[in-house]
Design goal:
single chain; 175 residues; mainly beta; Beta-clip-like; three-stranded antiparallel beta sheet; globular
Length: 175
């Protein structure tokens, strides 16, 4: 999505959300493609993020982490801003875009005043997810095509190559 500068008037306000805890709600009409806010917080390593937040110790997942690269995670609980309150949806009206080492939230479409803002968290999968992980990362967005999790959509398995048994024929001329 091409970057557009953010207008000088704030786009949203944080208040209680029916989806999850607090959410961000448009306080004016928002244009498609509008840059709404930068996701801010302390920049830490993945190892530090793992040390701070143990999934096994949490009854349900609740962090404000955003992976920027293989080395860096933004922890919006420390020095973060209101971007951390934009909730997940499987049918989002916003998207998070990594630009260099920064993360910006853009409107994917026109958003009317009063509507809640959402982007798809799409937490990375590594192939070791268990049914317990699926429950821990449950989605309650209510979208008609909700995938039931804030984990990234599962990729369909790659088709297995067809093993063709070739018959060997000797093309050498014999005398």
């Amino acid at each position: 999505m091409p970057p557009r500068s953010a207008p000088t008037t704030p786009a949203f306000k944080v208040r209680r959300s029916a989806v999850a805890g607090r959410g961000a709600f448009a306080i004016r009409d928002i244009r498609k493609g509008e840059r709404l806010i930068e996701y801010l917080g302390e920049r830490i390593s993945h190892a530090e993020a793992d040390a701070r937040y143990s999934d096994a110790a949490m009854a349900s997942h609740h962090t404000f982490l955003f992976a920027v690269s293989r080395q860096t995670v933004i922890d919006a609980l420390v020095g973060g801003n209101d971007a951390r309150f934009i909730n997940h949806s499987c049918a989002p009206n916003c998207e998070a875009v990594i630009e260099g080492s920064r993360v910006f939230i853009y409107a994917r479409k026109r958003i009317a005043k009063g509507k809640e803002l959402f982007y798809d968290y799409g937490y990375a999968r590594d192939g070791t997810e268990t049914p317990e992980d699926e429950r821990r990362y449950a989605c309650r967005c209510g979208a008609p095509r909700c995938r039931g999790t804030i984990l990234a959509p599962q990729r369909p398995p790659r088709p297995k190559p067809h093993h063709v048994v070739a018959r060997h024929t000797d093309k050498r001329k014999t005398d």
